[in-house]
Amino acid sequence: MNRPSGRFGGAFESFGHRNYRLLWGGSLLSTTAFMTTFLLVPIVGYEITGSYALSTLAQMGSGLSMFFLGPLGGVIADRYPKKPLVLAGQIFPALLIVGTGIMIVTGIITIPLLFLATLMMGFGFALMGPARQAWLGELIPRRLLGNGVALQQMSQNMARVLGPMLGSIAVFFGVSSGALYLSVAGLFLIVVPLTTMLPRTRPPHQEGDQPRRTAMGDLIHGFAYLRSNRRLRLLWLYWMVIVVCGFSVNALTPGIMDREFGRSAQEAFIVFLPFGISSVLISIPLAGLMSGRFAWPLLLVFGLASSVTLWAFAIAPTFETLILLALPVGAATSGVMLINMSLMMTNSRAEYFGRVMSFIMLGYGMQSVMAPVWGGLAEWLGGREALIAVGVVALFATVLMTFGWLRTRHLPLELGTAAADEEPERARASSPRVTRQPVPAFAAQVAPVVLMGAQKPPGGSGELPRLAAGGD
């Protein structure tokens, strides 16, 4: 473990560790590159075809790979050293970005080729994402994991500002989409050396006296746990819907720019910039409200706000109004996602944390898979009308979530979760009919994130416990 520096404290204490600073800096730059290309895909697709449906079809590639490989990413992160996985997840996408940029600049890019590029990009991200998150537990002290994860999430939100900022600069100077692709690939010339400076850590040995399950067995067991926990299952289903609805703005805005305001599709970056800024700003106050009784009501308030702001965005009469309305849209959609993810973490047992986080990645994959659906709807009804329909879906999901919360809020909390640690009077142990099982390395490392203290994680169970949250 690297020696801490005394220059940082409080909310930024993890920055006192050199290895964390290297990982955080690399994550910020690599995610900025990913975010820029993610926003560029529907823009390039629309520039090629002039079609909502075909431009969003190109996004579907990354969604398919993340949807099918994302859950395995957490299992792989439990079993293998993290450094090679993270490096592979940086070098491979960097080469893809360069190749895609060359195809755009030379004019040979097509929707099938763009689809293939995003498909392969999704493979890299599905493997790197969980490994990078798991690596935190091996680079900083266990007591700082909660702080480290929070700062890491802030870097993701900062990338949502830097990506659109690069795009806006490109629009101002007349830089083409292909040239922008090649430019962001240059960020990896900094990212990869930063990662190579980090130590190669070894996954901790698993505990227990029973042989390890197969990777597919671990995955199935993790999904069974998710399904058996009523609160967790409710949060995950809501997560899938709000992520799909929230990212619909990215898919539809390039077409709206052209058809509704007579501007180039690339000028969508100007709208994405305030969207990202508000995402960062809202994460700061929300981070301090995730522990305690306010998290669930805030989830519902922000869910309702996401619907209302989407409707307002859809009917914006002028381009300037659209830019202003991007601020509340970004705050509402990012806020509901942040709160939902936090609640999923605090209501998960430590030994399932890695796999639960992998299931969260399914939402990111699903939003790309659903992009052609929104594109087809926009082609049929119009871009504004499609966004209004998205808001209706988000509102319906929030209403169902409200009823679900009212039905489960008085149930006992499952012992061994951060939620139970915060409210011990409501906690209840799982069924005693358990046998000792190995604890996955990833879960063992990130356990302090959910246990938040000196409480030790129990060994796993060969049989899924009957949850105090009312598993059925």
Q: What would the keywords be for this entry?
A:
two-stranded antiparallel ribbon; two-stranded parallel ribbon; 472 residues; 4 strands; mainly alpha; Growth Hormone, Chain: A
Explain what you see.
This protein is mostly helical and 472 residues long. It has a single domain (17-197, 214-414), classed as MFS general substrate transporter like domains (Growth Hormone, Chain: A), CATH 1.20.1250. The chain is built from 18 helices and four strands. It has helices spanning 18-49, 52-57, 60-79, 82-106, 111-139, 145-172, 177-185, 188-196, 215-228, 230-246, 248-261, 268-287, 295-314, 319-346, 353-381, 383-408, 418-422, 441-451, and strands spanning 413-414, 427-428, 436-437, 460-461. The strands form two sheets. A two-stranded parallel ribbon has the order 1-2. Strands 3-4 form a two-stranded antiparallel sheet. Helix 1 (18-49) runs antiparallel to helix 5 (111-139) and helix 5 runs antiparallel to helix 15. The longest helix is centred in the first third of the chain and has 32 residues, at 18-49. The protein is globular and about 60 Å long. The two termini are 42 Å apart. The relative contact order is 0.15.
CATH architecture assignment name: Up-down Bundle
Query: In percent, how helical is the residue content?
Result: over 70%
Order of helices and strands: HHHHHHHHHHHHHHHHEHEEHE
SS content category = mainly alpha
Overall geometry comes to: globular
End-to-end distance: 42 Å
